[in-house]
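Q: Start with the shorter request: fold the first protein.
A: Done. Sequence, then structure:
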Amino acid sequence: MTIQEQTDWLRTQLNGCFDVVYHTFVAGPNVPCALVYLRGMVDLQTIQDDVLHALQALPQSDATLFYSQLFDRKQLPISEYEAIPLEDGVTAILQSHVLLLVDGEQRVIDLPLASYEKRSVSEPPNESAVRGPREAFIENAQVNLSLVRRRLKTPEFKSEAMIIGTKTQTNVYMLYLQGVSKQSLVDEVRRRLTSIEIDGLLGSSVVEEFFDDSPFSPFPQIQYTERPDVVAGSLLEGRVAVIVDGTPIVLLAPVTLFSLLQSSEDYYQRYVAATWIRWIRYLFILISLLLPSTYIAVTTFHPEMIPTKLLITIAASREVVPFPALIEAFIMEISFEALREAAVRIPKPIGQAVSIIGALIIGTAAVQAGIVSAAMVIIVALTGIASFIIPHFDLGLSLRLLRFPIMVLAGMFGLFGITCGMLLIYIHLVNLRSFDTPYLNPVTPLVFGDLKDTLIRAPWWLMRSRPSAYANDRKRLQRNERPWVHMQEENQD
C-alpha cells in the first residue's frame, strides 16, 4: 500500500478526530514515510531529535532494505518497537503510540512514545502517617507500578497487564507475589478481571463493584489505598493488588473486617503504642455505631439505669424539647451528615471552617430554640468524632448507615432492639466472604496464630508467619528472632 492509501484508510477510521496528526516526510534518499499520532499525547522531543533524525540518515532507498535496517540493525534509538498490521494501528494510535507508515509496505511500525501531562508524586491526602513514607499513587498506572516495584526488588513480584473497556481501552494491572499468594486466589482475581465486559472503565470503583461477592451488603469487600507501602505490605502477606490506569486508588483483595480497621501508622509505631491505639479504635467503632441508640434506649425505656443526678440533668434539658428522643436523634444525625457532605463539596480552603462553625452555630441555636437537648448535641458530637477514627472511609460510611436502623430498633424496643440488631449484623458478617475468605477471620473462624496482628500488634520479631487466610508460603522470618538475645543469655550463664 502506498502512503496515500494508508493515510486515507486511517483518516476514514479516525474521521472526526481533530487531534490526530499526519506528518509525511521522506526517509533516507527517497523512501516516503508518515508519522501518525495524537496531538499532546506523545513525546514530540524524541520524535524530532531521535526518530526523524535516524530515519532521514538511513542510506538505503529500497523499502525492503529500509525495513531490514529498522529491525535487523535496530537503527531507531527506541528500546521497543514492532511491526503490526495496519488494522491494529488504530488501537496503537489511541493508546498514545506513534505509527510509522512506510510506502509500499502492508505493515506499519508501532513506536511506544506515549507522553502526556501527569501529576507529580505527592503526599497522600487521606492516609497520612507521622513516621511512614510520604508518597501516594497518581493517575498514571506505570508510575504507580514503579512505586510498588521499587519496594519489592524480587523476581517473584509479578505484574500481569490486561485491557478492559471496549471504548476506553483502560490498562489494568494485577500484582502479586508468586509463591506467597495462593494460586487459587490469583486465578480467581484474574478470572473476575477478564470476565468484566463493559464499554467504559473510568475508575477502580467499577472493578470493586464487579469483585463484590455480596453486592447488596453494606460492608466493603475490597480494600483500597493510595499508599505504595500499604500495597507492598499487603502483597507480602499474600494478597493481590489491582491497579487501574487513570485513578490514584489501588484495590487489594481479599479483605477482612480487621484489615479495614488497621492503619499504616500501626506498623511504623512501637508495638505497645500501636496496640493501645488499636484498642482505642475498636472502642470508638462501637461508640460510633451504638452511642445514639444506647442513649435513646436508656432514656426512653430504661431510665433506672441512669444515676439519679445525671437523670435529673437530662430530664431538665429535655423538658422544653417537643420531640421524643428518637426524633431528636434523627434531626441531629441528619444535620451532622448534611454538614459533613457540605464540607466535602465546598472548596477545601473554607470547607473545614464551614463544617466546624456550622456545627457550633446549628448546635447552639437548636439547644436555645428548644428543638434538641444539650445532651443530644454531646452524644451526636461524640459519635461524629468516633466515626472519624475509622481508617477506612467506606467502612465508616457503612457504620454510619447502620446507625439509623439500630436507632429505630432502640426507639421501638429499647436495649432488646439493640441486641437484636447487633445479632443480625453479626450473622451477616459471619456469612460474608471476600474471595472465599471469611470476613471475620481470624476471630471467626478462630486462628490463634493470626491474632498477633489483629487484636494486638505484636513485635515484628514475634510475627513469624503470614496470615493463613490468603498466604501460601506462611514463613515470614527466615531465622530465629533476635539471636543476639540468646547469645547474651548464654554468655551470662
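Q: Next, the second protein, separately.
A: Sequence, then structure:
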Amino acid sequence: MVEYFIRRLLLTIPTFLGSTFVVFLIVQLAPGGPLEQQIQALKRGGETAGAGLVGEQALPKDAIEELKRFYGFDKPIWQRYLIWLGVWKREAKSYRIKPGVPRLVGDNERLILVQEGESVVLRNADDPARPIGDWKWRKERDDETGEVRYRVYREAYSGILTGDFGRSYRFRKPVIELIAERLPVSIQFGIISFVLSYAISIYLGVQKALRHNTPFDFATSSAVFMTYSIPGWAIGAVLLVLFATDRFFPIFPLGGFEDPLYADFSLLEKIWDRAWHFVLPTIAYTAGSFALLTMLMKNSLIETLSQDYIRTAFAKGIREERVIWLHAMRNSIIPITANIGYVIGIFFAGSYLIERVFDIQGIGQLSFEALVARDYPIVFAFTVISVVVTLIGSILSDLALALVDPRIRFK
C-alpha cells in the first residue's frame, strides 16, 4: 500500500502540471484580457481629457510595450507558464536607464552605464569598484523609429513553486495576502459542511434503508430531492427572508461573517457570534449536498442487507443494531467513501452565489470577481488551490477506502 500511495503522489505532479497548463492556456488566449482592458481604459481616459484621439493612436507604442512587459505578454505563452511556475527566471526588477545618467534601482543603490573603449559597461554610480551584484543591462530598439533605449534588470526565480502567486492587477496587493484573508472563511464553511453532510447522509440513509417503502421513506425522499433541486443560493435567500428580516422571524444576522464590533468581544462572545453567523450559510451550503450521499447510503445498505452473511448473522441471533452498524455498515459506506475527494473539492472551493447572498468575503466570491475582471494572478491561484485540494481529496478517498474495507489492497 505504501508503494501505491508513493506512485499516487508522483502521479499528482503531471496531473497538476497538465491541469494548470490547460487553464493557463485557455485564460491567456481568451479575448478581453487585462492588457486590452487597460489599453481601453487609458484610451477612454485620454478621450475624456480631450485628447481627441481614437484607435491605436490614442496610446503611444511605448506605453503599449510597457503594459505588455508589466502583464508579461511580451513573452511566448510557454515561457509565461514556466515563469508562473517559478522554474524560469523572470525580471524581478526592471528600470529604464540613459547612458551616463545615474539611475536609482534600490533604496540606496545607483547604477550608471558608462562607455569603456568600444563597449558599454554597467557600474555602481557612487563607487565604480563596488560589485553591482546580479544586475544586467540590455539594449532595446524601436522597430518604427529606430530609437535605441537601455534597460537594467535583475532576474530571479519567482513563481507558485517558490510561494509567489504574483500581485493582483485589481487590488495592487500580493495575491497570497488576499487568499490568506479569504481562504480561512471558505475552509471553515467547508469543514463544517463536509462533516454535516456526511453525518446527516449516513444517519438518514440508514434510517431510510431500514424503513424502506414506508411513509417515512417517501416523506424524506421528497424532502431530500426538493432541497437537491433548489440551488443553495436560493435556499439561502429564502432563509434570510424568513429568519433574518423583520417581516417574519429576525433571529439570525442578515449577513456577513461576524459582527462589526467583533474585535471588542470576549472569547466566548466571539465564539457565539461566529457560530450565530454560521447557521444560515451552513444550511444553504449543506442543503443540496447530502441528497446524493443519502441515496447512495440507502441503496448500498439495502443491497448489503440482502447478502447471505447478513442473513447468517441474524440467524445466529446477533442483535439487529450490531448487525447493521458493525457488519453491514462497513461495506455499505464504501460508495460514499469513494466520493470524499469530489465532495472536499466542492466544499473547499467555495460558492460565489452563496457567499454573495450572505455577504461573505470568501474565496469563491474573490475568484469569480477576479475572473470577470481578468485578474489573472488570482484566477491562477484559485486554480492551484482547486487542483491541489482535488488531488489531496482523491488520495484521501483511496486511504479511507482502505481503512473502511480491509479487503481492498492497493498494489
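Q: Describe the second briefly.
A: The CA atoms of residues 185 and 362 lie 6 Å apart. The chain has two domains: 2-161, 175-404.
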